[in-house]
Design goal:
The protein is an alpha/beta fold and 595 residues long. 62% of the residues lie in helices and 9% in strands. It binds adenosine-5'-triphosphate (ATP) and magnesium ion. Adenosine-5'-triphosphate binds next to α10.
């Protein structure tokens, strides 16, 4: 496992085909809708191509004095055509849009399902804000491909190709002009499209930057304002917005040039055709109805070619987005269950063993956070980790939860190497009260119940009581149903921490990890929560981290850490007698009379 941290950098899939293939895996599932959409697309395109013939017939019928049946036949023909055309178009719209919405919903779910299992390392390398932007902005772009662009593109291709063929057969002479015009158009479309795609991708990146910045500064509004950095933040945000604009400007410039060239070529071609057609009518080679049919059809064909460019660059843009989503979908977690994970017993004793563990964080390759860390915690034992800030105490818990793998040595629970079993399984046996309290934008009850979703209201309440949280919860406007705001902004730091403790208590797991769990509490609440926690620790294996030594004085064993190493071990009295860091800390906290 030692080199699993050296993850290869993911190269974004560049080719458009690759990206669209990713999409296909999502679209291909809906065969029925896809089939219906295709059928209606074909019908609609065909009717569009027949329509000019109907119009031409009407004109010729009118010119010949209304025909034998007074134009009834042609009227029925015409009405049928437009009825079929309208129906088929509407149906195509329905199924194609349905596909677009469905596929995007599926992609969002798939991406999220992937993201939520990735290791913390991934989010250290990739900004979560940017990823959220991909989840929303890029999927919306993809929706335009599946839900519209692609079908418009297919329709236009059908009309362009079908119409050209039809024209070649019915008016080969006039088609000379087309042959001159079409190749340069196609060349332009392909060449420029490629550039548009590149710019589009960087445009999306820039837009993501904008989102990330706004998100970061707005969620730290208090800090921004307390340090009066509003102007600075506005300027910094402005730079990102203008960056995004600059890239977008380059993209639309290319689009504008493209539009000019295509439009000019297309309409010049039509003008030439018209001129030529008029001559044919005056020499009697064509009827005016045939002439009209030809003209309308070639306008349809020409505008299909023209809009191909528009849609093509849309497609390119969306292909860029699909590429970024494909990256997320294929992101590999560095923390994975092995092929044949060792099954865990139903109940775990909670025997923890760090066997000569050396570990450095992926982003800090030169400094080890733990060096030859060797610790055995027997089932039911309570061990306190103390030591200066940055000593590696929280890191021990991170490894025990297998958020990272050590570079050497191993971490086992009940003799099972964590890297050889399913992470989601053994984590069920661990309750964590983390150093940084996390509160979700949900009610008090749901936040506590996050520890164990099956818990009854009574159990939630009991956990709140043990965590000394009941008083303030009952004071809140709606008690346990009170909404806590995003990140728990409606609570004080100590209140947040008590919710987190209640969550940990409710978890009811054989292994309890407390990382500065009571650091934000007042002395009185701390004392009472401490009692509740001591009660909770009975019969569980507990690792407790604390700066305030008073809270760990009574534990079975205290492990003193410094610079990623264990420097001393023993009971409070033993450690004080030994001298060293612990005694120094104890003297500072209890006064030098301790010894
Ligand atoms: N995600 C991370 N990426 C890189 N380095 C990290 C990361 N988390 C912690 N570190 C580094 O690892 C070392 C140990 O950190 P750790 O959080 O374990 O310290 P600690 O003993 O819990 O400190 P404190 O008492 O301040 O919480 C520190 O030098 C820290 O800078
Ligand atoms: Mg810590």
């Amino acid at each position: 496992m030692s080199d699993s941290g050296m993850r290869e950098e993911h190269q974004p899939p560049k080719g458009k085909l690759v990206n669209l293939r990713t999409l296909w895996t999502f679209v291909g599932v809906y065969k029925l809708q896809l089939f219906l959409a295709t059928v209606f697309l074909l019908i609609a395109a065909t009717t569009v191509l027949i329509l000019p013939t109907a119009i031409g017939r009407i004109i010729d019928t009118a010119n010949s004095g209304g025909g034998e049946d007074g134009g009834q036949g042609i009227a029925i023909f015409f009405t049928t055509i437009i009825l079929v055309m309208a129906t088929a178009t509407a149906m195509r719209f329905y199924f194609v849009s349905w596909l677009g919405e469905r596929v995007v919903a599926d992609i969002r779910k798939a991406v999220y399902e992937r993201l939520i299992t990735l290791s913390p390392e991934y989010f250290e390398e990739n900004r979560p804000g940017e990823i959220v932007s991909r989840l929303t902005a890029d999927t919306t772009l993809v929706q335009t491909i599946v839900g519209s662009s692609f079908s418009v593109w297919a329709r236009n291709i059908l009309i362009a190709i079908g119409g050209t063929g039809w024209l070649l057969v019915t008016a080969p002479e006039q088609m000379r002009y087309m042959i001159i015009i079409v190749p340069p158009i196609l060349f332009f479309v392909v060449y420029m499209g490629r550039r548009v795609r590149k710019l589009s991708r960087s445009s999306q990146d820039k837009v993501a930057d904008v989102g990330v910045r706004a998100n970061e500064s707005l969620s730290a509004l208090n800090i921004v304002q307390a340090f009066t950095q509003e102007k600075f933040e506005s300027r910094r945000f402005g730079v990102h917005v203008d960056d995004a604009f600059d890239v977008a400007k380059r993209r639309i410039k290319i689009r504008a040039i493209l539009t000019f060239v295509i439009m000019f070529l297309v309409f010049a071609g039509i003008a030439a055709l018209m001129f030529n057609g008029l001559q044919s009518v005056s020499t009697g080679k064509l009827s005016s109805g045939e002439m009209t049919t030809f003209l309308i059809r070639s306008i349809f064909v020409a505008s299909s070619f023209a809009s191909l460019t528009e849609v093509y660059s849309e497609l390119q843009r969306a292909a860029g987005a699909a590429g970024r989503l494909a990256e997320l979908l294929t992101a590999e977690s560095t923390i994975k269950a092995p092929k044949n994970p060792i099954p865990l017993p139903k109940t775990m004793k909670g025997d923890i063993h760090f066997d000569h563990v050396t570990f450095h964080y992926p982003s800090k390759k030169n400094i080890a956070a733990l060096i030859d860390f060797d610790l055995h915690v027997k089932p039911g034992e309570t061990v306190a980790l103390v030591g200066p800030s940055g000593a590696g105490k929280s890191t021990v818990l991170q490894l025990l939860l297998r958020f990272y793998d050590p570079q050497s040595g191993s971490v086992t629970i009940d003799g099972i190497d964590l890297s050889k079993t399913e992470p989601t399984e053994f984590r069920k046996h661990i309750a964590l009260v983390p150093q940084d309290t996390i509160i979700f934008a949900d009610s008090v009850a749901e936040n506590i119940r996050y520890g164990r979703f099956g818990a009854s209201d009574e159990e939630v309440r009991a956990a709140a009581v043990s965590a000394e949280a009941l008083a303030f919860i009952e004071d809140a406007p709606e008690g346990f149903d009170t909404f806590l705001g995003e990140r728990g902004t409606r609570l004080s730091g100590g209140q947040r921490q008590r919710i987190a403790i209640a969550r940990g208590i409710l978890r009811d797991a054989p292994i309890l990890l407390l990382d500065e769990a009571t650091s934000a509490l007042d002395a009185e609440s701390e004392l009472r929560v401490q009692e509740a926690l001591e009660h909770l620790m009975e019969g569980r294996t507990t690792l407790v981290i604390a700066h305030r030594l008073a809270t760990v004085k009574k534990v079975d064993r205290i492990v003193v850490m410094d610079g990623g190493r264990i420097v001393a071990e023993g009971t409070h009295d033993e450690l004080v007698a030994q001298g060293g860091i612990y005694k120094r800390l104890a003297d500072l906290q209890f006064g030098s009379s301790t010894a």
